[in-house]
Amino acid sequence: MKLKSQRIYNIVLIFVGIAGWAVTVFLLGESEQINFISGFFAGIAMIGILRTVKTARIMKNPEKAQDYEAMQKDERTVFVAGKARSMAFYVSILAQCIGAFIAYAVFKNHLICQALCFVTCFQCIVYYVFWIIYNKKY
To answer: Is 55 exposed, middle or buried (0-12, 13-18, 19+ CB in 10 A)?
Structure first.
């Protein structure tokens, strides 16, 4: 991703985080869920801010910007990023399955079990669809 498009993406993250935080604070008021939801949106805004600062620092130095863009296109970097995403997906699927089993067997909470199973199935379906698309494309 080019540095200018990264900057735009980061600014969008900041606005989504701030807007989501404001909406949850004003709509939920004093409910029990406000801490979690407002914290989630505040975290999104903070990630956008930190990434904007990082991108700005890289863009100030033209030599750093060239090195960064070259690193983004480097074959080893692309391979390592793909392997990391693959392992993160595998670990999340495994954790969701274990969590669903624990929710059902230990805590007898069927709602959480069903939600985790739904998310796991959805991720597997999305993975399969993209696997078919990329298998035809490449």
So the answer is: buried
Are residues 24 and 15 in contact, defined by beta-carbon separation less than 8 angstroms?
Answer: no
pLDDT in tens, 32-48: 667 777 888 889 999 99
Rounded to 5 degrees, φ, ψ at 30 are: -105, 30
Residues 115 and 117: their CA atoms lie apart, in Å, by: 5
DSSP secondary structure, 77-120, as one string:
HHHHHHHHHHHHHHHHHHHHHHHHHHHHHTS--HHHHHHHHHHH
For 50-72, how does the pLDDT look when each residue is reduced to its tens digit (9 = 90+)?
999 988 888 888 888 888 877 77
Element (H, E) at 133: helix 110-137
**Cβ neighbours around 10 below 10 Å, total:** 20
Number of Cβ within 10 Å of residue 101's Cβ equals 13
Query: Which DSSP letter does residue 29 get?
Result: T
Q: Which structure tokens are listed for 74?
A: 């480097």
Q: Which of 115, 138, 116, 118 is nearest to 126 (CA)?
A: 118
State which amino acid sits at residue 101.
Answer: F
